[in-house]
Design goal:
171 residues; 0% strand
């Protein structure tokens, strides 16, 4: 039964349709369930099988991955410089292009490894800072609790002394 409103001209309210969660681009399809076949009986994967696993996002979203943009830009610059210098110094066109591709590959891989290592060290540093902040917070809370306890004990002691003094001169 739909809830009724005080105004009869209002349309009946219905529950909204659920919105599906956004697509997770990092999700890879699960492997098929293991079968009774052994690895010897399984067919070898082909190039077509490998290319079928590549999605458009894998190619269009490369710049969004950590360290990829920086390392590719460094690789492009070093490849252009190495190939251009080899060509200017008199190497043949194909030879200088080979140098450019080689310099791009080596420099990109090195820059990516360096960037990943730097990110790992930064992450470890942030973890240490987080741990220190938690310890400081805990110590601050303990200090506050200790201080309040001392104030309460001092107040109780003062009330005890004051209570006996009131009766000292009474007859």
């Amino acid at each position: 039964m739909a809830p009724t409103s005080s105004n009869p001209s209002d349309p009946p309210t219905t529950s909204p349709t659920p919105v599906p969660p956004p697509e997770n681009h990092n999700h890879r399809p699960a492997l098929p369930p293991p079968s009774s076949k052994t690895l010897k009986d399984a067919p070898d994967p082909t190039l077509t099988d490998g290319l079928a696993t590549i999605r458009p996002y894998d190619l269009t979203g490369v710049h969004l991955r950590p360290c990829a943009r920086e390392s590719l830009l460094v690789g492009i610059g070093s490849g252009f410089a190495a190939g251009g210098i080899r060509f200017i110094l008199g190497a043949k066109q194909w030879r200088s292009m080979s140098w450019a591709v080689g310099a791009f590959c080596v420099t990109s891989m090195g820059a990516h490894a360096f960037c990943r290592e730097r990110r790992r060290m930064e992450k470890e540093g942030m973890e240490k800072i987080r741990e220190v902040m938690e310890v400081k917070k805990r110590m601050k809370v303990e200090e506050l609790v200790r201080r309040k306890r001392e104030e309460r004990e001092a107040r109780e002691e003062e009330e005890r002394r004051r209570g006996w003094r009131a009766w000292v001169g009474w007859k």
